[in-house]
Amino acid sequence: MCSIPKGTHQVPPYNSKAFTGNWVNQHVKLSLKVDDGDHVTSQMLKMPAASITGEAVSVFDWRTQHCPGLRGVFETKGRCPNDVALGCDPDVTDAPMKAYRNGSGVVVLQAPLELGARAMVGPSLSKLHHDCHIYANSTAKMSWDPALNACREWNQSPYAFKNNSVYALTHMEYHNESNHIGLWSSVTLLKSLDGGQSWKHALPPPRHIVAAAPYKYEKSGLRSVLFGFRSPSNIIKSRTDSFYYATVEAGWGHGPNAVGQEDGTYIRLSDVDVIP
Amino acid sequence: MRTRDVTDPKSWRAWDGKSFNVSLAVNPYTDPNLQPAQHICHPLTKMTYPSLLWSTYLKSYLIFGTTDGHDNTGWSFQLITDLATPQLSAPVAVTTGANIKPGGNGTKKTPTRPVPGLWARSINGIVLGTQIWWLKRAAGVLGQVTSKHRVHSCTPCGVPACVDPVTGKSNLRNIAIKELDAIKEGPTFGCDMIGGGGSGAGSYIYPSLIDETAPSADLNFETVGATASLFLVTNDCISWQNVSGHGMRCNPWDSDGIVHRSVTKLPVAFHLKSDDSMAGQQLQERRTLLSLTLGSGMVLQRAPASAVLWGYASAGETVTVRIDGKALPAAAPDNASSTWRVSLPPTAAGGPHTIVVKSSSGASQTLTDVLFGDVYLCGGQSNMEFAMAFIRVGAATNATAEMAAAAAYGRIRLFMAGEYAQAQPGMAPLHDLQTVVQPWYSPNATNTAASGAFGSFSAVCWEFGKEIYEKLGGDVPIGLVENCVGGTRIEKWLPPKELAECETAGGPVPLPPWTKNKTTVDSDLWSSMIFPYTVGPMAMAGIAWYRTSFGSYALHLLHAYVYLC
User: pTM of the full predicted structure?
Assistant: First the structure.
């Protein structure tokens, strides 16, 4: 007989900072349900799993819901060739969808794209319609100066506040102007003060850099492709401390220039105290 | 990185394996003395495109994304014990079923066949081992290769290797019209259009796990429950290629050459998978003193029906119900389901009434502003989901005006169930709703304003209820229960026993073509979103069901398949 108070008890290692083992290869003792003072009625050893449980449901069907073409808008020399088939009329998603509810109560499901990015909006996540309003278009003001880190930017990690401001981490890619070669990436910060309707850099470039490679762009070679920080996750507010967390991916090519940095996803955080 | 001001990009600090001390906000162009080695952080996972979430079900943070950074390796999640000292579990792969194929692994059987009459959009051959090239039409010379665009890699499928099926060679070459004709009539190139890195046709890419129904402290969907939605971007076009510096495009033999991408969502359920002795055990149900289908502000079915109140209590408890102070006979929960029930005396239309429910354990709940009238359940798919905020009928009707007008109908009461599919097929039905998007409420000036709760209510259900209300002279309160999920087949809403007993004329109902690459589970929504109303049961005047082509694929097939019951 053991003496355990009546009730259901969470048992480590869940929520345990001290746990250092392998989650998956152990059967984790999850809970003890105690109906009276000394009788353990249920003791389950479980480990987590996840599965797809139903059918795919269409949220956005490009063939029937895409917005009118952007032809003529982005056909400036150097930005996009005069050919719709070359991606100048996409109205597509080119990064994971991210959702938030803005300060006005509107649910926004972002479809990140570096040009002509749209969102799906509505009162709830299950009742969205495709909004043809372009909320972000980094190519309209893109810079060919790699020092600015303001070339093609995917607004990828929005985080909304009740005063209708939204901040977002971006995935920025620098492509060489002359031959469009290269994928030198960094993570920058955008802000919106109107609930996500319009965005601009949180600070004038390059002061908007959150994470960038400590090496200059190279037109060819190991540092020319997939080099730098990229693809930020969503931002999450910690339940136990005052910080926000997000992850970004890092790519450092291969060979001696990698300086020991491994590819992978990295975690970072910021303090919530001064969030507007 | 750590910051005191998230609006200051430079203040973020990254994890170095021990603490958040690494600044990554560097610029080698402006800082000639930059020391790269000082701006290195510690890797946590090989996962890409992650969603970072708190799970109320697993009671842990989790990171959910693409396994190992390759789209076609599927999705997985890792638990994180503590964000402040991040340590991740080993990846747990998401079970997808045979018909869900993440990434680009053969999700669409589209042969690389030349398009008759559109040779300029046809394939020249398969060359260089695993790459496909296509040709453009040169002026006056049909079939001459003018462009050599690498499309993507392909894998053998019915042929020994990705070679030109005409010649068996793997050399890029010009093709004469005669040869093109031969290809037209002959075999296809034998390779599915499979993209490297998940870029293939029909492939699911860019995962995002989102759950709006789980509780969250603020405006951001950073919490998931036992279930969540996996939003995925789908490559629609037959194949696409990345044009350096210009983004992506569909290959020219696709319908219009423009890149197509759509968005779909898949239901994901988390389980606490146990050892063998626990395998298949039902997840713990959510049960409360009063069924979640009931609540203050609701409408109960009027006389001559006898409305039922019900809920859940432990063995040995008794539950008493008082309506407007008048006590009704006490009830005890049945042994099998722990459900207690109290039938109310048939009550004429009107109200409001106050109902107090008390358990001998001390738990109690008071329902205020309860009306008696006619209750209708509004079911169906996306047409029933279509929300008030988006209605527009001609130039005369707009959502804002229609919603504002609804505020005058305070005796029409609304309830919206949340989408929840039973986690595993074949399990016992759930005794109560697992999610409620909007508990009972009445339209008023606040919730019918822009962005108010009323804006998300079913437009069809509302108009249906409003018309009945007006036809009854405005004397009978109306209760409307929105209980629908877009894109669902009728078979998902039917109980398994009846579905099995109902033979169909024409034999077994074939699955709709849109389910070809999807999981298909019958009766799961009946289990979680219909059965809970039958427990009391909830007395109703009727059910409004909006059926479209999704309603039954059997009916969609010109009545070739009709249920015989």
Answer: 0.57
